[in-house]
């Protein structure tokens, strides 16, 4: 059910250009899934296999199944992420099971942060985080191309300055 | 607002309004700005600290204390005092001597610290509230504390202590400058005249506390728990160790609250809202116009028959959150209308759809919502109703969220975040309605931000 997505409800802004994330993010996240699955499978299978009996090592299949599920989930989640710059605010929509849509007016932005960890850098990714005076505002866009992240940061700062409002 | 600026000498968590002074510029400017010191009584305010430490140690370990005390001779005691008193006195004196403050056209500057120098510059147009508080002992000594609430301010930024008259004059000056009066006239403008909106009679306050479930709960716990412990263990120390904190909590929730909220006055002046209260410790708070982020009208079950409500407010960076401890509903609503200009408290709130009972059984009826052209209002709670109001202009961001179970029932939540770090949530709304709400809220916040009053409210 597509409740809440603007293109179905006839809400102003339906004609907006939505942008997605870089496919490299799927690779990063899948890598994480694989690493964690392997670690968990070994942690479960090895002690059971050695101490209780080789048959019990089959329990290591549980993390593997979870990993396989996670493998698929990563792509679904990646597909759900999108953001758009409207005239006065930034709209971020994300999540498959837990859907969340965030509207942050440019004038309310206190700080725009572009960060890129070692793994992210290796895959040519960066993420942008927006802060407002409310700590609950949870506006992060992961998996952006560094150039796009910088463009977004500059544009958001520029728009934020033009529309700046106090508390 | 500016972005947090990580100066070298300032701890990284230092807020935006307090930044390390540029030393070169500072020395050049210093001549123009008259720096003042705090009241000479200030060094004595920490006089009780060593005594508390000793008392705490004595309570913590009574046997060892007794042994130590027996070993002490008069000479040792006198020697100890002869060292301790001058050292403490010197420390108090030096920390007072090295604390300066100055009011410039745009900032309040506080310089402090003997070993670790700290300079806080508080921008006046960012003032969210000004509190003058006079604890009991300070009232005896004729001094007062002045605290400027800005986002991210901490306890170090309060001016303690100032002479009572000086504190008043300084508050008037700060407010006048913050309001945007010309720098030359700011000092002469004086205190803006206030007129009283509401005064809580002591009888009503006492009755309201007697009708609060928490008060009775605390007293019951304070009586029942030690009794049960005594019957089961017969150990005096265990009973005392549990009874004292419980009695303390019970006292704080009844007598302490009565003393704190005694003679509660709400007044209105061109400088904003004035809230004065307290029996032993008096507090005078001033909230300039346009600083209130959210207002909550709380209606406990037992007060409903009397038609009484409690009104709470959130101001960014301010510790106080009570606007009216108890008042009849119409009076409280008229106060709210003055605090949030142009806002009327919505009387009819819409319910969630019936299917919401599958998400939140029974309590789903308590979740209500109303959006007028000035506020976003939600109510929750069945027994203790809490109605939260957020003016559209105070919305920092809007979020819609929906979990898998809610999606099954086509329901969603809309969160409205405000600058006082409070989020007001409209729960259990129809999904389509929530989506419309999200966009309508973004739109109305944008339009009302445009005609919000300026930070300097007299300009």
Percent helix among the residues of chain A?
Answer: 40-55%
Radius of gyration of chain B: 26 Å
Secondary structure tally, helices of chain A: 5
The first-level CATH class name of the largest domain in chain A: Mainly Beta
Strands side by side in the biggest sheet of chain B: 7-6-5-11-10-9-8
CATH homologous superfamily title of the domain at 290-450 in chain B: Pleckstrin-homology domain (PH domain)/Phosphotyrosine-binding domain (PTB)
Count of helix runs of chain B: 13
Task: Detail the poorly predicted runs of chain A.
Answer: 1-10
User: Under the CATH scheme, which class of the domain at 290-450 in chain B?
Assistant: Mainly Beta
Could you list the spans of chain B in which at least 5 consecutive residues all have pLDDT below 50?
A: 1-31
Helical content of chain B stands at 25-40%
Summarize model confidence as the mean pLDDT of chain B: 85
| Major beta sheet summary of chain A | 3 strands, antiparallel
- Derived from helix and strand composition plus strand pairing, the structural class of chain A reads alpha+beta
Biggest interface, residues from each chain: A-B, 35 and 45 residues
Distance between the termini of chain B: 19 Å
Which topology of the domain at 290-450 in chain B does CATH recognise?
Answer: PH-domain like
Number of strands of chain B: 20
The radius of gyration of chain A is 20 Å
User: Between the first and last Cα atoms of chain A, what is the distance in angstroms?
Assistant: 37 Å
Protein name (chain A): Membrane protein
InterPro entries (chain A): YdbS-like_PH
Domain YdbS-like PH (chain A): 78-156
Pfam families (chain A): bPH_2 (PF03703)
């Amino acid at each position: 059910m597509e409740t809440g997505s603007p293109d179905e409800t006839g809400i102003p802004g339906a004609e907006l250009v939505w942008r997605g994330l870089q496919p490299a993010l799927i690779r990063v996240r899948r890598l994480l899934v694989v690493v964690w699955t392997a670690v968990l499978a070994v942690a479960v299978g090895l002690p059971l296999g050695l101490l209780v009996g080789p048959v019990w090592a089959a329990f290591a299949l549980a993390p593997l199944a979870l990993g396989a599920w996670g493998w698929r989930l990563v792509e679904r989640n990646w597909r759900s992420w999108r953001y758009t710059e409207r005239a006065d605010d930034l709209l971020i929509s994300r999540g498959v099971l837990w859907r969340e849509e965030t509207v942050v007016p440019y004038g309310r932005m206190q700080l725009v942060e572009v960060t890129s960890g070692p793994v992210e850098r290796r895959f040519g990714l960066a993420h942008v985080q927006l802060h407002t005076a409310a700590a609950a505002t949870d506006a992060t866009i992961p998996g952006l191309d560094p150039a796009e992240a910088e463009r977004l940061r500059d544009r958001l700062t520029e728009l934020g300055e033009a529309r700046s409002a106090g508390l | 607002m500016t972005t947090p600026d990580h100066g070298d000498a300032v701890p990284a968590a230092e807020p935006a309004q307090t930044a390390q002074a540029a030393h070169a510029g500072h020395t050049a400017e210093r001549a123009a700005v008259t720096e003042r010191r705090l009241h000479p009584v200030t060094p004595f305010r920490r006089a009780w600290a060593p005594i508390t430490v000793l008392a705490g140690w004595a309570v913590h370990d009574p046997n060892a204390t007794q042994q130590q005390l027996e070993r002490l001779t008069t000479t040792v005691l006198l020697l100890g005092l002869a060292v301790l008193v001058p050292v403490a006195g010197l420390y108090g004196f030096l920390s007072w001597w090295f604390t300066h403050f100055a009011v410039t056209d745009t900032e309040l500057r506080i310089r402090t610290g003997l070993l670790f120098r700290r300079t806080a510059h508080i921008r006046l147009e960012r003032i969210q509230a000004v509190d003058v508080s006079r604890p009991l002992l300070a009232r005896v000594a004729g001094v007062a504390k002045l605290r400027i609430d800005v986002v991210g301010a901490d306890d170090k930024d309060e001016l303690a202590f100032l002479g009572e008259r000086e504190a008043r004059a300084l508050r008037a000056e700060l407010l006048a400058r913050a309001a945007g009066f010309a720098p030359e006239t700011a000092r002469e403008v004086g205190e803006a005249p206030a007129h009283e909106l509401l005064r809580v009679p002591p009888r009503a306050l006492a009755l309201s506390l007697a009708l609060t479930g928490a008060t009775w709960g605390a007293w019951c716990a304070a009586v029942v728990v030690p009794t049960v412990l005594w019957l089961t263990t017969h150990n005096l120390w265990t009973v005392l160790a549990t009874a004292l904190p419980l009695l303390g909590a019970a006292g704080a929730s009844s007598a302490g609250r009565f003393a704190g909220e005694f003679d509660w006055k709400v007044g209105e002046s061109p400088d904003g809202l004035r809230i004065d209260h307290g029996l032993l410790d008096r507090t005078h708070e001033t909230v300039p116009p346009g600083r209130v982020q959210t207002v909550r009208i709380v209606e406990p079950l037992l007060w409903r028959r009397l038609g009484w409500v409690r009104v709470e407010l959130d101001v960014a960076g301010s510790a106080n959150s009570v606007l009216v401890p108890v008042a009849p509903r119409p009076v409280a609503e008229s106060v709210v209308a003055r605090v949030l200009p142009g806002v009327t408290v919505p009387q009819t709130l819409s319910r969630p759809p019936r299917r919401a009972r599958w998400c939140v059984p029974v309590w789903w009826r308590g979740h209500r919502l109303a959006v007028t052209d000035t506020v976003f209002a939600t109510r929750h709670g069945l027994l203790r109703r809490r109605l939260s109001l957020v003016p559209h202009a105070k919305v920092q961001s809007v979020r819609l969220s929906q979990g898998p179970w809610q999606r099954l029932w086509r329901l969603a939540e809309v969160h409205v975040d405000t600058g006082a770090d409070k989020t007001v949530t409209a729960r259990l709304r129809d999904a389509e309605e929530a989506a419309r709400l999200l966009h309508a809220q973004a739109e109305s916040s944008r339009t009302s931000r445009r005609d919000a009053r300026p930070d300097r409210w007299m300009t």
